[in-house]
Write a structure and sequence with these properties.
Low-confidence stretches: 1-62
Distance between the termini: 44 Å
Structural class: mainly alpha
Oligomer: single chain
Radius of gyration: 26 Å
Mean pLDDT: 79
Number of helices: 18
Strand content: under 5%
Protein backbone atom coordinates (compact mmCIF):
# COMPACT_ATOMS: atom_id res chain seq x y z
CA UNK A 1 0.00 0.00 0.00
CA UNK A 2 2.79 2.42 0.98
CA UNK A 3 4.61 1.69 -2.30
CA UNK A 4 1.45 2.56 -4.24
CA UNK A 5 1.06 5.83 -2.35
CA UNK A 6 4.70 6.74 -3.01
CA UNK A 7 4.22 6.06 -6.73
CA UNK A 8 1.12 8.34 -6.74
CA UNK A 9 3.08 11.11 -5.03
CA UNK A 10 6.05 10.80 -7.40
CA UNK A 11 3.77 10.88 -10.43
CA UNK A 12 2.07 13.99 -9.09
CA UNK A 13 5.42 15.68 -8.54
CA UNK A 14 6.50 14.90 -12.09
CA UNK A 15 3.35 16.41 -13.60
CA UNK A 16 3.61 19.46 -11.33
CA UNK A 17 7.17 20.11 -12.47
CA UNK A 18 6.22 19.96 -16.14
CA UNK A 19 3.31 22.35 -15.64
CA UNK A 20 5.57 25.32 -14.96
CA UNK A 21 8.06 25.27 -17.81
CA UNK A 22 8.72 28.90 -18.85
CA UNK A 23 7.42 29.86 -22.25
CA UNK A 24 9.68 31.29 -24.94
CA UNK A 25 10.73 34.94 -24.64
CA UNK A 26 9.69 37.18 -27.49
CA UNK A 27 12.43 39.08 -29.34
CA UNK A 28 12.72 42.78 -28.52
CA UNK A 29 11.49 45.28 -31.09
CA UNK A 30 13.87 47.40 -33.14
CA UNK A 31 12.16 50.56 -31.90
CA UNK A 32 13.10 49.84 -28.32
CA UNK A 33 16.76 49.64 -29.37
CA UNK A 34 16.88 53.07 -31.03
CA UNK A 35 18.24 55.12 -28.07
CA UNK A 36 20.99 52.59 -27.42
CA UNK A 37 21.95 52.65 -31.11
CA UNK A 38 22.25 56.43 -31.06
CA UNK A 39 24.65 56.28 -28.08
CA UNK A 40 26.87 53.70 -29.77
CA UNK A 41 27.06 55.66 -33.03
CA UNK A 42 27.61 59.07 -31.39
CA UNK A 43 31.00 58.04 -30.00
CA UNK A 44 32.56 57.19 -33.43
CA UNK A 45 33.92 59.36 -36.28
CA UNK A 46 32.08 59.74 -39.57
CA UNK A 47 34.81 57.78 -41.43
CA UNK A 48 34.76 54.93 -38.98
CA UNK A 49 31.02 54.57 -39.38
CA UNK A 50 30.89 54.84 -43.17
CA UNK A 51 33.69 52.31 -43.73
CA UNK A 52 31.49 49.57 -42.24
CA UNK A 53 28.54 48.01 -44.06
CA UNK A 54 25.16 49.25 -42.89
CA UNK A 55 24.21 45.81 -41.53
CA UNK A 56 27.38 45.63 -39.44
CA UNK A 57 26.70 49.09 -37.97
CA UNK A 58 23.15 48.07 -37.06
CA UNK A 59 24.30 44.85 -35.43
CA UNK A 60 27.10 46.52 -33.45
CA UNK A 61 24.77 49.32 -32.37
CA UNK A 62 21.87 47.19 -31.19
CA UNK A 63 23.48 43.88 -30.22
CA UNK A 64 24.37 44.75 -26.63
CA UNK A 65 21.05 46.41 -25.91
CA UNK A 66 19.14 43.53 -27.50
CA UNK A 67 20.99 41.00 -25.38
CA UNK A 68 20.30 43.06 -22.25
CA UNK A 69 16.59 43.30 -23.06
CA UNK A 70 16.42 39.55 -23.74
CA UNK A 71 18.10 38.91 -20.38
CA UNK A 72 15.62 41.22 -18.64
CA UNK A 73 12.68 39.48 -20.34
CA UNK A 74 14.11 36.09 -19.43
CA UNK A 75 14.53 37.14 -15.81
CA UNK A 76 10.96 38.48 -15.71
CA UNK A 77 9.63 35.20 -17.14
CA UNK A 78 11.64 33.20 -14.61
CA UNK A 79 10.40 35.37 -11.72
CA UNK A 80 6.82 34.95 -12.95
CA UNK A 81 7.23 31.18 -13.12
CA UNK A 82 8.75 31.03 -9.64
CA UNK A 83 5.95 33.25 -8.27
CA UNK A 84 3.29 30.99 -9.81
CA UNK A 85 5.06 27.92 -8.43
CA UNK A 86 5.19 29.60 -5.02
CA UNK A 87 1.45 30.29 -5.09
CA UNK A 88 0.74 26.65 -5.98
CA UNK A 89 3.06 25.43 -3.20
CA UNK A 90 1.27 27.66 -0.65
CA UNK A 91 -2.11 26.55 -1.97
CA UNK A 92 -1.18 22.89 -1.41
CA UNK A 93 0.49 23.62 1.94
CA UNK A 94 -2.48 25.55 3.37
CA UNK A 95 -4.89 22.94 2.01
CA UNK A 96 -2.98 20.09 3.65
CA UNK A 97 -2.78 22.10 6.88
CA UNK A 98 -6.51 22.80 6.81
CA UNK A 99 -7.44 19.14 6.34
CA UNK A 100 -5.13 18.02 9.16
CA UNK A 101 -6.15 20.76 11.63
CA UNK A 102 -9.80 20.21 10.78
CA UNK A 103 -9.67 16.45 11.32
CA UNK A 104 -7.71 16.83 14.56
CA UNK A 105 -10.33 19.25 15.92
CA UNK A 106 -13.26 17.06 14.82
CA UNK A 107 -11.66 14.00 16.43
CA UNK A 108 -12.06 15.59 19.89
CA UNK A 109 -15.03 17.91 19.23
CA UNK A 110 -17.78 16.14 17.31
CA UNK A 111 -19.63 19.35 16.47
CA UNK A 112 -19.04 19.81 12.71
CA UNK A 113 -21.61 22.60 12.25
CA UNK A 114 -20.03 24.70 15.01
CA UNK A 115 -16.50 23.99 13.75
CA UNK A 116 -17.57 24.93 10.20
CA UNK A 117 -19.05 28.22 11.48
CA UNK A 118 -15.87 29.09 13.39
CA UNK A 119 -13.74 28.35 10.32
CA UNK A 120 -15.95 30.44 8.06
CA UNK A 121 -15.92 33.39 10.47
CA UNK A 122 -12.14 33.31 10.96
CA UNK A 123 -11.45 35.01 7.62
CA UNK A 124 -13.67 38.05 8.38
CA UNK A 125 -11.10 40.02 10.46
CA UNK A 126 -8.51 39.46 7.71
CA UNK A 127 -10.40 40.93 4.76
CA UNK A 128 -12.01 43.64 6.92
CA UNK A 129 -8.50 44.80 7.88
CA UNK A 130 -7.50 44.88 4.19
CA UNK A 131 -10.52 47.04 3.40
CA UNK A 132 -10.04 49.34 6.41
CA UNK A 133 -6.35 49.93 5.64
CA UNK A 134 -7.00 50.56 1.95
CA UNK A 135 -4.80 47.62 0.90
CA UNK A 136 -7.78 46.28 -1.02
CA UNK A 137 -10.68 48.38 -2.26
CA UNK A 138 -13.84 47.60 -0.31
CA UNK A 139 -16.80 46.41 -2.41
CA UNK A 140 -19.91 48.55 -2.57
CA UNK A 141 -23.11 46.51 -2.76
CA UNK A 142 -26.78 47.46 -2.75
CA UNK A 143 -29.57 45.40 -1.21
CA UNK A 144 -30.46 44.17 -4.70
CA UNK A 145 -26.86 43.00 -5.19
CA UNK A 146 -26.97 41.07 -1.91
CA UNK A 147 -30.24 39.42 -2.99
CA UNK A 148 -28.55 38.33 -6.22
CA UNK A 149 -25.62 36.87 -4.29
CA UNK A 150 -27.72 35.16 -1.61
CA UNK A 151 -28.38 31.87 -3.53
CA UNK A 152 -24.67 31.68 -4.37
CA UNK A 153 -23.79 32.26 -0.70
CA UNK A 154 -26.24 29.54 0.31
CA UNK A 155 -24.46 27.10 -1.99
CA UNK A 156 -21.09 28.31 -0.68
CA UNK A 157 -22.31 27.42 2.81
CA UNK A 158 -23.31 23.93 1.66
CA UNK A 159 -19.90 23.34 0.09
CA UNK A 160 -18.10 24.06 3.33
CA UNK A 161 -20.41 22.47 5.89
CA UNK A 162 -20.79 19.34 3.74
CA UNK A 163 -17.02 18.93 3.56
CA UNK A 164 -16.58 19.46 7.31
CA UNK A 165 -19.29 16.93 8.19
CA UNK A 166 -17.73 14.43 5.77
CA UNK A 167 -14.26 14.92 7.29
CA UNK A 168 -15.70 14.41 10.77
CA UNK A 169 -17.68 11.30 9.85
CA UNK A 170 -14.97 9.45 7.91
CA UNK A 171 -11.40 9.49 6.72
CA UNK A 172 -9.98 12.60 5.02
CA UNK A 173 -8.85 10.46 2.09
CA UNK A 174 -12.36 9.03 1.54
CA UNK A 175 -13.98 12.48 1.63
CA UNK A 176 -11.64 13.69 -1.12
CA UNK A 177 -12.17 10.57 -3.20
CA UNK A 178 -15.94 11.22 -3.17
CA UNK A 179 -15.40 14.93 -3.87
CA UNK A 180 -13.56 13.92 -7.05
CA UNK A 181 -16.99 13.00 -8.46
CA UNK A 182 -18.09 16.65 -8.58
CA UNK A 183 -17.88 16.83 -12.42
CA UNK A 184 -20.70 14.27 -12.65
CA UNK A 185 -22.99 16.51 -10.61
CA UNK A 186 -21.90 19.59 -12.56
CA UNK A 187 -22.84 18.02 -15.89
CA UNK A 188 -26.23 16.96 -14.53
CA UNK A 189 -27.08 20.39 -13.09
CA UNK A 190 -25.85 22.20 -16.21
CA UNK A 191 -28.25 20.07 -18.25
CA UNK A 192 -31.22 20.39 -15.86
CA UNK A 193 -30.91 24.11 -15.04
CA UNK A 194 -29.21 25.59 -18.10
CA UNK A 195 -30.15 23.08 -20.79
CA UNK A 196 -26.46 22.71 -21.63
CA UNK A 197 -25.33 19.59 -23.48
CA UNK A 198 -21.69 18.65 -23.90
CA UNK A 199 -19.76 16.60 -26.48
CA UNK A 200 -19.79 12.80 -26.10
CA UNK A 201 -16.07 12.84 -25.24
CA UNK A 202 -16.76 14.92 -22.14
CA UNK A 203 -19.52 12.58 -20.97
CA UNK A 204 -17.24 9.59 -21.61
CA UNK A 205 -14.74 10.92 -19.06
CA UNK A 206 -17.46 10.68 -16.38
CA UNK A 207 -17.42 6.86 -16.57
CA UNK A 208 -14.02 6.38 -14.88
CA UNK A 209 -15.01 8.95 -12.24
CA UNK A 210 -18.23 7.10 -11.39
CA UNK A 211 -16.54 3.70 -11.55
CA UNK A 212 -13.52 4.81 -9.51
CA UNK A 213 -15.59 6.38 -6.73
CA UNK A 214 -17.82 3.28 -6.68
CA UNK A 215 -14.85 0.92 -6.33
CA UNK A 216 -13.22 3.11 -3.67
CA UNK A 217 -16.47 3.30 -1.68
CA UNK A 218 -17.00 -0.47 -1.72
CA UNK A 219 -13.42 -1.16 -0.66
CA UNK A 220 -13.06 1.78 1.78
CA UNK A 221 -12.17 0.45 5.24
CA UNK A 222 -13.51 3.55 7.03
CA UNK A 223 -16.69 3.88 4.93
CA UNK A 224 -19.75 5.55 6.52
CA UNK A 225 -22.98 6.60 4.84
CA UNK A 226 -22.84 9.98 6.58
CA UNK A 227 -19.39 10.73 5.11
CA UNK A 228 -20.61 9.73 1.64
CA UNK A 229 -23.82 11.79 1.90
CA UNK A 230 -22.05 14.86 3.31
CA UNK A 231 -19.33 14.77 0.64
CA UNK A 232 -22.03 14.52 -2.03
CA UNK A 233 -23.84 17.49 -0.43
CA UNK A 234 -20.60 19.43 -0.81
CA UNK A 235 -20.38 18.34 -4.46
CA UNK A 236 -23.97 19.31 -5.25
CA UNK A 237 -23.54 22.68 -3.50
CA UNK A 238 -20.29 23.39 -5.35
CA UNK A 239 -21.82 22.53 -8.73
CA UNK A 240 -24.96 24.54 -7.95
CA UNK A 241 -22.79 27.50 -6.91
CA UNK A 242 -21.10 27.43 -10.32
CA UNK A 243 -24.37 27.07 -12.22
CA UNK A 244 -26.12 29.81 -10.23
CA UNK A 245 -23.15 32.13 -10.64
CA UNK A 246 -23.31 31.61 -14.39
CA UNK A 247 -27.09 32.06 -14.46
CA UNK A 248 -27.43 35.12 -12.19
CA UNK A 249 -24.10 36.92 -12.54
CA UNK A 250 -22.91 36.28 -16.10
CA UNK A 251 -22.64 39.55 -18.04
CA UNK A 252 -24.14 41.48 -15.13
CA UNK A 253 -22.42 44.27 -13.20
CA UNK A 254 -22.82 43.66 -9.47
CA UNK A 255 -21.82 46.53 -7.21
CA UNK A 256 -18.36 48.10 -7.31
CA UNK A 257 -14.90 46.61 -6.71
CA UNK A 258 -16.32 43.08 -6.71
CA UNK A 259 -13.30 41.24 -8.11
CA UNK A 260 -12.68 37.54 -7.40
CA UNK A 261 -11.01 37.95 -3.96
CA UNK A 262 -13.67 40.44 -2.84
CA UNK A 263 -16.44 38.17 -4.10
CA UNK A 264 -14.99 35.36 -1.99
CA UNK A 265 -14.82 37.70 1.00
CA UNK A 266 -18.46 38.77 0.60
CA UNK A 267 -19.58 35.16 0.24
CA UNK A 268 -17.60 34.30 3.39
CA UNK A 269 -19.38 37.00 5.40
CA UNK A 270 -22.81 36.03 4.06
CA UNK A 271 -22.17 32.32 4.70
CA UNK A 272 -21.18 33.08 8.29
CA UNK A 273 -24.49 34.85 8.85
CA UNK A 274 -26.34 31.89 7.30
CA UNK A 275 -24.40 29.32 9.34
CA UNK A 276 -24.97 30.82 12.81
CA UNK A 277 -28.71 30.04 13.07
CA UNK A 278 -28.20 26.66 11.34
CA UNK A 279 -25.44 25.80 13.80
CA UNK A 280 -27.66 26.66 16.77
CA UNK A 281 -30.55 24.66 15.31
CA UNK A 282 -28.41 21.57 14.63
CA UNK A 283 -26.10 21.54 17.66
CA UNK A 284 -27.25 24.24 20.07
CA UNK A 285 -24.52 25.39 22.45
CA UNK A 286 -23.26 21.92 23.27
CA UNK A 287 -19.91 22.73 21.65
CA UNK A 288 -18.88 24.96 24.54
CA UNK A 289 -19.66 22.30 27.13
CA UNK A 290 -17.73 19.74 25.07
CA UNK A 291 -14.79 22.17 24.77
CA UNK A 292 -14.57 22.49 28.56
CA UNK A 293 -14.93 18.72 28.91
CA UNK A 294 -12.02 17.99 26.56
CA UNK A 295 -9.78 20.34 28.52
CA UNK A 296 -10.95 19.09 31.93
CA UNK A 297 -10.64 15.39 31.08
CA UNK A 298 -7.28 15.78 29.37
CA UNK A 299 -8.58 13.85 26.36
CA UNK A 300 -6.64 13.25 23.16
CA UNK A 301 -3.25 14.56 24.19
CA UNK A 302 -4.31 16.66 27.17
CA UNK A 303 -5.48 19.83 25.46
CA UNK A 304 -5.44 23.13 27.31
CA UNK A 305 -7.85 25.99 26.63
CA UNK A 306 -5.09 27.73 24.71
CA UNK A 307 -3.96 24.74 22.62
CA UNK A 308 -7.51 23.71 21.66
CA UNK A 309 -8.47 27.28 20.77
CA UNK A 310 -5.25 27.53 18.75
CA UNK A 311 -6.12 24.34 16.85
CA UNK A 312 -9.54 25.74 15.91
CA UNK A 313 -8.01 29.08 14.90
CA UNK A 314 -5.38 27.38 12.72
CA UNK A 315 -8.12 25.38 11.01
CA UNK A 316 -10.05 28.56 10.21
CA UNK A 317 -6.97 30.55 9.15
CA UNK A 318 -5.68 27.79 6.85
CA UNK A 319 -9.17 27.39 5.33
CA UNK A 320 -9.37 31.05 4.34
CA UNK A 321 -5.70 31.19 3.34
CA UNK A 322 -5.84 28.27 0.91
CA UNK A 323 -8.88 29.73 -0.84
CA UNK A 324 -7.29 33.18 -1.01
CA UNK A 325 -4.03 31.80 -2.44
CA UNK A 326 -5.96 29.56 -4.84
CA UNK A 327 -7.40 32.68 -6.54
CA UNK A 328 -3.86 34.01 -7.01
CA UNK A 329 -2.47 30.68 -8.23
CA UNK A 330 -5.22 29.74 -10.67
CA UNK A 331 -5.47 33.30 -12.02
CA UNK A 332 -1.89 33.04 -13.32
CA UNK A 333 -2.20 29.85 -15.36
CA UNK A 334 -4.09 28.52 -18.36
CA UNK A 335 -7.04 26.10 -17.97
CA UNK A 336 -4.90 23.01 -18.68
CA UNK A 337 -2.43 23.85 -15.91
CA UNK A 338 -5.41 24.69 -13.72
CA UNK A 339 -6.83 21.20 -14.30
CA UNK A 340 -3.48 19.51 -13.67
CA UNK A 341 -2.95 21.60 -10.52
CA UNK A 342 -6.35 20.67 -9.12
CA UNK A 343 -5.70 16.98 -9.77
CA UNK A 344 -2.28 17.09 -8.13
CA UNK A 345 -3.78 18.90 -5.14
CA UNK A 346 -6.25 16.11 -4.50
CA UNK A 347 -3.56 13.43 -4.79
CA UNK A 348 -1.27 15.36 -2.44
CA UNK A 349 -4.03 15.81 0.17
CA UNK A 350 -5.00 12.12 0.06
CA UNK A 351 -1.38 10.97 0.44
CA UNK A 352 -0.64 13.54 3.17
CA UNK A 353 -3.75 12.59 5.17
CA UNK A 354 -2.99 8.87 4.90
CA UNK A 355 0.51 9.50 6.22
CA UNK A 356 -0.56 11.98 8.94
CA UNK A 357 -3.39 9.88 10.36
CA UNK A 358 -2.00 6.44 9.41
CA UNK A 359 -5.28 5.72 7.63
CA UNK A 360 -5.40 2.17 6.24
CA UNK A 361 -6.34 1.95 2.55
CA UNK A 362 -7.15 -1.29 0.80
CA UNK A 363 -5.74 -2.09 -2.62
CA UNK A 364 -9.23 -1.64 -4.09
CA UNK A 365 -9.55 1.78 -2.49
CA UNK A 366 -6.20 2.89 -3.92
CA UNK A 367 -7.13 1.61 -7.40
CA UNK A 368 -10.59 3.21 -7.25
CA UNK A 369 -9.28 6.58 -6.08
CA UNK A 370 -6.56 6.57 -8.76
CA UNK A 371 -9.12 5.84 -11.50
CA UNK A 372 -11.52 8.52 -10.20
CA UNK A 373 -8.83 11.19 -9.98
CA UNK A 374 -7.49 10.33 -13.44
CA UNK A 375 -11.06 10.62 -14.76
CA UNK A 376 -11.38 14.07 -13.14
CA UNK A 377 -8.24 15.21 -14.95
CA UNK A 378 -9.51 13.84 -18.28
CA UNK A 379 -12.85 15.61 -17.72
CA UNK A 380 -11.13 18.95 -17.10
CA UNK A 381 -8.97 18.59 -20.20
CA UNK A 382 -11.95 17.51 -22.34
CA UNK A 383 -14.01 20.47 -21.09
CA UNK A 384 -11.17 22.84 -21.91
CA UNK A 385 -10.85 21.38 -25.41
CA UNK A 386 -14.62 21.73 -25.91
CA UNK A 387 -14.58 25.39 -24.85
CA UNK A 388 -11.58 26.14 -27.06
CA UNK A 389 -13.35 24.58 -30.03
CA UNK A 390 -16.46 26.72 -29.43
CA UNK A 391 -14.38 29.91 -29.22
Amino acid sequence: MKKSLVVMALAASAVEASAFVPSGVASPSVKSMAPAAAQQVAGKSFDAITTKPATAVALSATGGAAAKTEDDSGNAALKGTLLTGGYFALWYLFNIGYNIYNKQALNVLAYPWTVATIQMATGIPYFCALWALGIRKAPKLSLADLKTLFPVALCHTGVHVGAVVALGAGAVSFAHIVKASEPVVTCLLNFLLLGETLPAKVYATLLPIIGGVGIASMKELSFTWLALAAAMLSNVSSSARGVLSKKTMSGKQIGENLDAPNLYSVLTAMSTVILIPLMLAMEGTGFFTAFKGVVANGAAGEFTNKSLAKLLALGGASYYAYNEVAFQALGRVNPVTHAVGNTIKRVVIIVASVVAFKTPMSTGSIIGSSVAIAGTLMYSLAMNASKTKKD
